[in-house]
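Problem: given the chain below (510 residues), write out its structure.
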Amino acid sequence: MEVAHILQKMKIGDTVGSCSVFVALSHIHEQFEVEDSHENLARILENTAELLANAPLSWLFPKVNTDIRGQYLGLVNSFTRYAALPVCDTDSGALPAKNYEDIPAKAQAVSTVLLVLSLQIQKALEDQNSPAIRSLGRTLAPTYCIFSITHLQEQPWTSAASRKRARELLTSAVELTGSRSVQELLSGKLDDDQKGVLGPVLDTLKPELTKESWKRNQAVKHVFSWVLVQVGRPWLTEYLEKVFPPSLLISDDYCTENKVLGVHCLHHIVLNVPAANLRQFNRAHVLYHAVFNHLYTSEATLIQVVLPCLIDLLSVLEKPPSCAVIPRKPNRFDDMLRHILTYMEMEHKLDLRRVYAKNLALLIERILYLTLCTSGDSRMGIVIIRHLKKLERVIVGYLEVSDSPEEKCRLSILDALQKTIQIAWPCMEKRMGLLTQSLLRFLVDISSDSLPTQLKEHLMTEASHCLLLLNHCLKGKLQTLLREVDSSCVPDPVLMCIQKVTAAPLSISC
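Solution.
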């Protein structure tokens, strides 16, 4: 009787038997499409949720065929469009927050209906485990996925309540497809021929990810990037043609926020697609030039994502050490190191200095790794001596400037110095005097700074390790010089560091 009452309210029929589910869904869809009153649309959603929750499963899911799947999908798509974001016609791609005031409530209402439908499909699967009903779940999953991710993140068009509903809806999409996680929902299973929903999701987003349209809906870029980073090796390779152009497009925008998002997507592609596929059709070169152009900026947030992306991309573009000629010709590793050092020398902003210092250490570490991969032949990595003069100036200059309270910049520079000594140890004798003076001055400065005890000890330990490495490279010459230091003129913490170096055996490993 309750279902009959709902049908009467919706002006569909008198009883469940008086019309098929196909007719009922068609009627609801038509009503929803022609209605323009917010109150009436909300009432239709409420009535539909009530109907789906109370109708018999045998009526909701008769013999599931293409027509029924299409009808359910059409209705679901119509409901999700109700909570779609307003279109932005400005070049900025952003609207004032007040334009999104009614979106969270709409999203919650739609999510409620979709969750009820999802629950009923799962009940039907438990009763019948029918491939046809499972097919209906897979048909709806891409729409569920896109809608839930749109309202999942903290954005101007979401609220705590709408985000909670979106998380529940995404979980239901995972269950509809029999997946164990969101990653499996998107990627599929390695041991199963059944593909994930990433392909349909990207196909749905594709019309909105063109040069002319991607800024009209502010949520599209966030949905695309969120979905992309959930998919790793080996699945992402199959979708490279679908994810590479939009990532480049977003990264090429004038807005820093979009650049950061685009480079973040490109970096994920670099890490999760085999080098051979990236080099195919000159993709890696296009990517390199597109991202390298972002280095000419003073935005720390952008540099922070650009440098790691380029450093990982270098391993794709450059030949491995075993294939390179000796002596090695200058390549993109040299270009990157030269660029970073040039900008570090003239940079005075602390946030940028921290970013550069951290990534300088990362780049030198990559060069060190290449050195160690040459089966004992250090001539591949020692080409860092081409930049050693400028590198020395940068290291000495950065050790002199504090970036308290965390001293991240100077910690990174000490790390870079340690790795430099490990690579270019045959050339350290000429630079022993300047580097030793700089490190001792650094120790004296740190000993008198009002830093947290743990951080101060960490800094002094790292500087002491640099001195130990230098001493090892110089076969004990530094120990001889340090023993001549007048202990009465040295603070106790610094004296302890010096004694640690002078007492250390020469067997310390570089």
